[in-house]
Every structure is written in C-alpha cells, then in structure tokens.
Amino acid sequence: MSEWWTYSLSDFLLFSPRTYYRLFELYNAQVWPAQVVATAFGLAILALWRLGQTRAILAILAALWLWVAWAYLLTRYDTINWAARYFAVGFAIQAMLLIATGLIRDRLVLRPPADAFGGAGLAMFVFALMVQPLIGPLLGRPWGQVEMFGMAPDPTIVATLGVLVAGSRPHWELMVIPLLWCAISGATLWTMQAPDWIAMLAAGVMALGLTGWKTVSRRHSLDRA
C-alpha cells in the first residue's frame, strides 16, 4: 500500500474539470431566468447599501445562501461530490447566522463607502456581482457555464465577505464558513489547474486581513477611550 504522503490533491478529486463546468452549464439552463432575479437582488443590495438598510441586505443574502444550498449544492453538486450535502448544511447554517446577527439581534451596521473598510467591502461586493462572473468566459469557458452572484457559491461568498468587511465591528462568527469555503474552492480550482483559483484565495486573504486590522483598530480605540 502506498504511503499517504505520496498522494496529491488531484488524487482526491472526484470529478474532471469538464464535468465540473458542465454542471454549471446544465444548472444555468435549468433554473433560467433565476439569474435575472439574482442580479436584480445584487443591484438592490447596492441601492440598500447607499440607504444604510443593513437588515434588508442581510435578509437578501440569507435567502440567496439558502437558494445556493438547495438549488446548486444539494440538488446538483451532490451528484458529483458526496461532500456537497455537508457544504449545503454549512450554507444553511450561515444563512441562519446572518438572520440571527443582522435581523434578530440587529448587530451589524455597514460603514459608509468613504470609510476604508466600507470602501473595501463595497469594492469586494461589486467585484463579486459584476466582475467575477466574467472571469470564466474571459478564460475561454462558454457563457453558459458562467458563475453568478446568488446562483453559484464562489461569487456569493465573496459578496458576503464584502458586506462583513464593511461592518462597523468585526464579526468573526460570520467569517468562519465563508473563509473555509474560500480555502475549499481555491484548493479545488487549483487542483483542476483552473487559473481563476487565485480569485478565491485573494478574496479570503483580503477579508481575513481587513477584519484582523479592524479588530486591532477597535481594541486600540477602546483602550484609548
């Protein structure tokens, strides 16, 4: 029997890149025109952000996390990856955490775009909504395989991290699942030799660094006070 250290990540990959991206193509075709609704929700979040309506933003995000958990992870991704059902549970838990923190306890307030954290968070959200879906087609994949905010896990994760980065205080309890997904998705894409793996790694590192910076800044402010 081969020693465990002789294995690489590719030995644990349960599907080929072609199967992975074909799944998105079938998914997009089957749920159309849900993509239009998801994009409308994304634009609505930008408008609500400008108005300071954080609770409405988190309600929309929670609904989209539940949609991705059911429509993509549990119903479709589970057909090629047995771990998808556990990912779906994680997404559902994240949705409940967003509801508990933002709607029930009302503890998340967004900073204005002029603020460093507010601006960085807004930039991450806009990237996830308008730029990240274009990466696949720009790399040569068919438009039918596009991964959109509110429909696919990766842009939904990055957009959520943007909202959390823009929060007035650190919310580490809401960061755990998104950061774990950044690591899982980044490793999966890297194993498939997909050049866009760097996007998820960069998003996770950026969110982690900014939240850590916010935590330290907040502690210094409290100490001075």
Keywords:
225 residues, 8 helices, mainly alpha, single chain, 0% strand, 71% helix
What is the averaged pLDDT score? 91
Report helical residue fraction.
over 70%
Alpha carbon gyration radius:
18 Å
Strand content: under 5%
Alpha-beta content class: mainly alpha
Detail the poorly predicted runs. Answer: 4-9
Number of helices: 8
Number of strands: 0
Strand count, sense and barrel status of the largest sheet are:
none
Q: How many structural domains are formed by the residues?
A: 1
Through-space gap between termini: 62 Å
Tell me what you see in this structure.
The protein has 225 residues and is mostly helical. The chain has one domain (14-214). Helix content is 71%, strand content 0%. The protein has 8 helices and no strands. It has helices spanning 17-31, 34-51, 54-74, 84-104, 116-138, 153-165, 172-191, 197-224. Residues 4-9 have low confidence and may be disordered.
